[in-house]
């Protein structure tokens, strides 16, 4: 019976996860709603499209619009990518 070098205690994994969740908004937490999760995914996607020139060029050619127009559209969509938030019980 050998020693498992890949074993990490569960407490250590939970501590690492909590650290990541406090450091990065997009990783979510226990109280993250589906709307918040999807909104973060869409914003991350739009940020990636805008920040990678070759990807932006690909989309611009595919949609037959200028890079500046497409960049503007992506940044505008990133403000509220999934529409208005759903009503909450508190409202």
TrEMBL record:
Pfam family, one: SF3b10
Protein name: Splicing factor subunit
Organism expressing this protein natively: Planoprotostelium fungivorum
InterPro entries: SF3b5/RDS3-10, Splicing_factor_3B_subunit_5
One annotated GO biological process: mRNA splicing, via spliceosome
A GO CC term assigned to this protein in UniProt: U2 snRNP
Family according to the record: Belongs to the SF3B5 family.
């Amino acid at each position: 019976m050998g020693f498992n070098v890949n074993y990490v205690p569960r407490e250590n994994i939970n501590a690492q996860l909590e650290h990541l969740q406090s450091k990065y908004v997009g990783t979510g937490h226990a109280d993250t709603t589906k709307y918040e999760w999807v909104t973060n995914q869409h914003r991350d996607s739009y940020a990636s499209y805008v920040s990678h020139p070759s990807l932006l060029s690909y989309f611009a050619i595919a949609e037959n619009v200028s890079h500046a127009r497409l960049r503007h559209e992506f940044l505008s969509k990133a403000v509220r990518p999934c529409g208005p938030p759903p009503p909450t019980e508190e409202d």
